[in-house]
Specification:
The chain is mostly beta strands. It is built from 2 helices and 27 strands. The chain has a single domain, classed as Neuraminidase, CATH 2.120.10. The strands form 7 sheets. Strands 2, 3, 4, 5 and 6 form a 5-stranded antiparallel sheet that branches.
Length: about 375
C-alpha cells in the first residue's frame, strides 16, 4: 500500500473511482462485484466456486455468494484492529483443508500497531466463529508503516507471510537495518506450518533455509522493503513479489517455484537495480520489472492469468500502481519481462488484486469498489 502523503487524499481520490469497464481495451473489461468499506483484499476458499471473501481494512470480512454481497459480516474484529493509513486488517488465507476443518487465517495490525497472524474457524459457510480466535504469530512493529501484511498458502501447503522492514525511511533500525538482518522477521517472506503442535503456536518446515543455521528459522526469503502484494502462479507455483520502493524505483520480482528459498531481494543495499550502499549482499534476486516511483507511488502486484475465459492473456502477469491506477501486463521469466503492455483498464486507489477458486481475477479499489476482470 502507498507509504506516502497520498494516503491523506483518499477521500478525494475515492470519488474518482472509474465505473466498471471504463477505459477498457484489448479485449478486457471490469465487471462490478460490489461496493465495500475500504476493501484491501479478495480471497476464496479452495474448491468453492460460489463464494469470494472481501477484506475491509477496518476489520471486517464480507461474503459475496453467487454474485450477491451478503448482509452482515463473515468476521468482524474491528474492536481489535488498529486502522488506518498503512495499518489495518490486510488479508486472509484459507487452509488447504478448509472444506473439512474450517480453518482460516487473518493478518492485521492490532491497537498497539503490532502485527498479528491469527487462526479462526468457520461456524457456517457464511459465518466465522469469533470465539475460535487463536494467536499464531506476533511481530512487534517499530513504526506505523511498512507492515506488509499479505498471507497466502503456497502450493506446498505451508503458510507464507510477508513483512515490511519495520518502517520509517531507509531501513534505519539496527546496524544494517532489518531487511538484511536474519535475526528479525521484519523485511522478510516467512514460511510456516500454522497449525498448533502441543504448546507451539506454529512449527517451521525442516527444509526452510535457515533451520540449523544462523538466522530465524521462519525466514524463507529476505531483503524486502514492503512486500504489500505478491502471489503464486496457481498452475506452476512460481512466485511474483511486488516490493514498494523508497523513492526511486518500484519493483516486481519473479522466481521459479521454490527458487526464492534463502534468496535476498536486495533492500536496503539495492533499490531496483540501483545500488544504494556499499554494504555486502549475497544470493541476490534482481527484479524483472522496475519503474520510477515518480510515475506512480506504490506497486500493487497481481496474478498470472489462468482464467480460461481470458483468451490471449494466458500466462501474462497483471499488476498496477496504487496512485496511477493503470493495470499492466507482462510475461515474466527468470531472464526478464517480455511484451509489457497496458490492459487498457484503470482503477483508482488500486489496493489489491484477488483470485477465486475458478482462477478469475479481481481488482480492488480502496475507494470502495471490487470488480472482476472479464473478456469483452
Amino acid at each position: 500500500m502507498a507509504s506516502r502523503a497520498v494516503l491523506a487524499l483518499l477521500p478525494v481520490l475515492g470519488a474518482l473511482a472509474l465505473p466498471a469497464g471504463a477505459g477498457a481495451q484489448a479485449g478486457l473489461a471490469l465487471q462490478r462485484v460490489g461496493s465495500f468499506d475500504q476493501p484491501v483484499h479478495v480471497a476464496a476458499p479452495p474448491g468453492d466456486p460460489r463464494r469470494v471473501f472481501v477484506v475491509e481494512q477496518e476489520g471486517r470480512i464480507r461474503v459475496v455468494r453467487d454474485g450477491r454481497v451478503l448482509p452482515g459480516a463473515f468476521l468482524d474484529i474491528r474492536g481489535r484492529v488498529g486502522c488506518c493509513g498503512e495499518r489495518g486488517l490486510f488479508s486472509m488465507a484459507f487452509a488447504p483443508d478448509y472444506a473439512r476443518t474450517g480453518r482460516f487465517y487473518v493478518s492485521y495490525t492490532d491497537r498497539s500497531g503490532d502485527s498479528r497472524i491469527e487462526e479462526f474457524r468457520r461456524s457456517s459457510a457464511d459465518r466465522a466463529r469469533p470465539g475460535s480466535r487463536r494467536l499464531v504469530l506476533f511481530q512487534r512493529q517499530p513504526e506505523s508503516n511498512h507492515n506488509g501484511g499479505l498471507i497466502a498458502f503456497g502450493p506446498d501447503g505451508f503458510l507464507y507471510a510477508g513483512f515490511g522492514d519495520g518502517g520509517g525511511g531507509d531501513d534505519q533500525h539496527g546496524r544494517r537495518g532489518n531487511a538484511q538482518n536474519l535475526s528479525t522477521l521484519l523485511g522478510k517472506l516467512l514460511r510456516i506450518d500454522p497449525r498448533r503442535r502441543g504448546r507451539r503456536r506454529y512449527t517451521v518446515p525442516r527444509d526452510n533455509p535457515f533451520v540449523g543455521r544462523a538466522g530465524r528459522d521462519e525466514i524463507w526469503s529476505y531483503g524486502l522493503r514492503n512486500p504489500w502484494r505478491w502471489s503464486f502462479d496457481r498452475r506452476t507455483g512460481d512466485l511474483v513479489v511486488g516490493d514498494v520502493g523508497q523513492g526511486s524505483f518500484e519493483e516486481i520480482t519473479f522466481t521459479r517455484a521454490r527458487r526464492a528459498r534463502g534468496r535476498n531481494f536486495g533492500w536496503r543495499v539495492w533499490e531496483g537495480r540501483r545500488r544504494r550502499t556499499g554494504e555486502p549482499a549475497s544470493r541476490l534476486l534482481f527484479p524483472q520489472i522496475t519503474y520510477p516511483t515518480g510515475s506512480g507511488c506504490a506497486v500493487t502486484a497481481g496474478y498470472v492469468v489462468r482464467d480460461p475465459r481470458l483468451t490471449g492473456w494466458q500466462g501474462r502477469f497483471l499488476y498496477g500502481d496504487f496512485c496511477n491506477g493503470r493495470i499492466l501486463s507482462a510475461r515474466l521469466s527468470a531472464g526478464g519481462a517480455a511484451g509489457q503492455r497496458s490492459t487498457g483498464l484503470r482503477v483508482s486507489n488500486l489496493s489489491s488484486f484477488g483470485e477465486d477458486a475458478l482462477g478469475r481475477i479481481y481488482v480492488v479499489s480502496l475507494g470502495g469498489t471490487v470488480t472482476r476482470i472479464v473478456a469483452r
